[in-house]
Design brief:
Layout: H1 19-33, H2 49-59, E1 71-76, H3 79-100, H4 103-109, H5 120-123, E2 126-133, E3 135-138, E4 141-144, H6 148-165, E5 169-170, H7 179-184, E6 191-200, H8 216-219, H9 225-232
Antiparallel strand pairs: 1-2, 2-6, 3-4, 5-6
Helix pairs in contact: 2-6
């Protein structure tokens, strides 16, 4: 690869494991992540700010287009602000469940037992609102960001993984439209809400739907000459 002489590069200090260790770690990580569940019933037990900060910084380590890092994580614990967010979200969700959503959509949601009421927005100790930056503002001048949705989607995935790794639970909440979050949190014109994620401990009596994830053969297609040769033996 031809490197731009204007760019600064440093040696890669990568992590290397023996093959057997790689196999073990990959298997254990899959098994760990497979235990992650979306939760709608939270305990009001507090979570330290330092834990949340570490989670956010793990999310912010995600790759992004041209390393623009086009995200802002708004972290809310103020009870009054959480209440205002709940009221605004429930207003939109009521409209969704009573006319905006198609019958097919409502039918697909039945296994989850959801409705327009969102008490978790007040009960969970923290709300992390992920904003995407359509562009940067540099002394009043617009500077383009690249692959914004893809970049913020990656960061959000890192965020959910870090939450699970810390022993907490989360919900990816997407009230639509979400413009009220920009207004309530007083975010600048270049930011748009992407996800609203309650974070905390599960309630003692929390339950989750009895669902199964897709199997390997349902999610992967191999283009591997070695596999094709083996199949022809």
């Amino acid at each position: 690869m031809q490197k731009n002489s204007d760019a600064a590069f440093i040696p890669l200090r990568g992590i290397r494991y023996p093959r057997a260790e790689m196999l073990r770690r990959s298997r254990e990580y899959y098994q760990f992540m497979d235990k992650r569940r979306t939760v709608r019933e939270f305990a009001d037990k507090p979570v330290s700010r330092e834990i949340i900060e570490n989670i956010v910084m793990a999310a912010s380590s995600a790759p992004s287009g041209a390393h623009k890092q086009p995200w802002t994580f708004c972290v809310v614990s103020d009870p009054e602000l959480k209440k205002a967010i709940r009221i605004a979200a429930e207003k939109e969700e009521y409209e969704n469940y009573h006319g905006r959503m198609s019958e097919e959509w409502l039918e697909d949601l039945k296994p989850f037992g959801t409705d327009w009421e969102k008490p978790f927005l007040e009960i969970a100790p923290w709300l992390i609102v992920v904003f995407k930056k359509a562009y940067d503002l540099d002394q009043g001048q617009k500077r383009k960001n690249y692959y914004v949705n893809e970049s913020v989607g990656l960061a959000s995935g890192f965020l959910l993984s870090a939450i699970h790794h810390a022993g907490l639970v989360a919900l990816t909440h997407t009230p639509s439209p979400m413009n009220f979050l920009q207004d309530l949190l007083k975010r600048p014109e270049n930011e748009r809400p992407f996800l609203l994620i309650p974070v905390g401990y599960p309630a003692e009596d929390a339950t989750v739907p009895n669902l199964q994830r897709k199997k390997l053969e349902d999610v992967v297609v191999y283009y591997d000459p070695a596999e094709e040769d083996s199949a022809n033996d």
